[in-house]
Amino acid sequence: MAAMDPTRAFIKDVKRVIIKVGTAVVTRTEGRLALGRLGALCEQVKELNSRGFEVILVTSGAVGVGRQRLRYRRLLNSSFSDLQKPQVELDGKACAAVGQNGLMALYDALFSQLDVTSSQLLVTDSDFKDPDFRMQLSETVNSLLALRVIPVFNENDAISTRKAPYEDSSGIFWDNDSLAALLAMELKADLLILLSDVEGLYSGPPSEPQSKIIHTYVKEKHHGEITFGDKSRVGRGGMTAKVKAAIYSASAGTPVVITSGFATDSITKVLKGERVGTLFHQDASLWALPNEVSAREMAVSARECSRRLQSVSSEERKKILLDIADALEANEKLIRTENESDIAAAQQAGIEKSLISRLTLKPGKISSLAKSIRVLANMLADGLILEKTSCPLGVLLIVFESRPDALVQIASLAVRSGNGLLLKGGKEAMRSNAILHKVICGAIPSTVGDKLIGLVTSRDEIPDLLKLDDVIDLVIPRGSNKLVSQIKASTKIPVLGHADGICHVYIDRSADMDMAKRIVLDAKTDYPAACNAVETLLIHKDLLKTEGLNDILLELKTEVAEDLKVADIFLHQVDSAAVFHNASTRFCDGARFGLGAEVGISTSRIHARGPVGVEGLLTTRWILRGSGQVVNGDQGVVYTHNNLPL
């Protein structure tokens, strides 16, 4: 479960919740009810109800549903000649009367399937002018909640004295957003959740790439910064109305969260204290909010620093890497202290031992990392200098799990290859990653900029980053197949999949069994938590009952054979990123392959496969030097191509 955000700490004391569902959530584009979204909503309400929360719904959508039904009915009752005439717009109040009936019937059916009882309460603006009505309303709702019944409110547009639904904005409340805010005050709710068709309040129209989500609204800071887009496609006021209602409710003492009604778990996430949507709170201006850098700002900064890095010479990049290696060794004590804190927290949280093993920076690891960086610094990687040269990809987003040493390797490769970098490590290595990031960035000269490498600290920022296909050039997820698949499905950015491959060892019948035993033991036991540790041991059927096999079956994988013809067939026909003969799988590593370090082991087939070093993070650029030549339709031109000496 994601950790509770500090600004949402008040959630633990929430008992009574009002959930307002917008028309864009209730209905689909063509006006029909969105059954899937309503089903997910009711399931979340059922869960909250069973956990002891008092849940009140305020729903929109009746007019839209009624209009769709009446249009269909009018079509059935019209003659061909009627259809040729201009169609008069349907009366909004009639639409409300028809739609309300169908909408509530659906809520009743869905809640009944979940063994939950719901009730309907229709109100009008004029009702709230009567103090006796307001008192009776409160008593009725309290009685329903005591019986675990879900009250479902809607404005009774069919008999409201308002001139026309969606048009008249006068009165005590003027739409269902303001009704929800009014009910939050009248019924003394602890929290109001406004469900929308976007993830929260953005600094501009959500469709614009530079817009960023505002996680905590502070009126003094954000009021003049926000640019609203078009109003809702179906409701009265869209985000403008929601913000107005949220400010009203929060100032009266009921916090508000605006979040997506399209997600199947947004309500439960809010009530777990996760940082989803936009929070409105009367004390927000008093909080010492973190100086948040948006996903876009972080990516743009990394790109700008990358371009400055590309302009420096190979020798200057070498010096940066050597400075990073020196800084790691100089700060080894501080790094190990933070890493030990991560390990203690992981053990207390009950994280499995294999992950803790990957998390641990063992004695000598910092020196080993510094050594590998110095090896990388002394490698040639400045590219070709003729018509075809190597150049950085741009900005990389790397999502990796618990290993803090991976941060050092990836960062050094980014510097050597000239790429900007955004890193998201596992939360269990939070302290280790933070100190390593600080040490490395401190060694980057101001001529390049310490924002070359950004550290993403919140899981909530990943969806925003995956939308930045105009700024981020490649995503490399290092983790499970599930993680890689989720990221591929969530972004337009190219993804270089570092998924969990299957590491095999095959022992042929011609194998030297002493050599086979030595290799299998090394492949499995040298570092069992590593991705190049053997997982599957394949054995020729003729060895099944031999004594030599019984000695080996304690461990895992590689291919071992003395018959060179068999070995050659194996090496050329096995479809794998790395195939070895008579050697441990543990050699499948960027440093051991002479790459200096690795950003990961790619299980993809395109661009890079196997351990990915500097070359895997470069692409090509064509440079043509001329003296005024033109194509002119290729008239009288014969092209010849020769390799020129360097």
Folded structure, characterized:
One of its GO terms (biological process) is L-proline biosynthetic process. In the N-terminal section; belongs to the glutamate 5-kinase family. This is Delta-1-pyrroline-5-carboxylate synthase. Pathway: Amino-acid biosynthesis; L-proline biosynthesis; L-glutamate 5-semialdehyde from L-glutamate: step 2/2; Amino-acid biosynthesis; L-proline biosynthesis; L-glutamate 5-semialdehyde from L-glutamate: step 1/2. With 646 residues, this protein is an alpha/beta fold. 39% of the residues lie in helices and 13% in strands. The protein contains 22 helices and 18 strands. It has helices at 23-26, 35-50, 62-76, 80-84, 92-113, 131-146, 176-186, 219-222, 238-251, 266-270, 295-310, 314-330, 332-348, 353-359, 365-377, 404-417, 430-442, 461-466, 481-489, 513-525, 547-552, 564-573, and strands at residues 16-21, 54-59, 118-123, 150-155, 191-196, 216-217, 256-260, 278-280, 388-392, 395-399, 420-424, 453-455, 474-477, 504-507, 536-539, 600-602, 610-612, 618-622. β16 (600-602) and β17 (610-612) form a beta hairpin. α12 (314-330) packs across α17, α15 (365-377) packs parallel to α16 and α16 runs parallel beside α17. The longest helix has 22 residues, at 92-113. It is elongated.
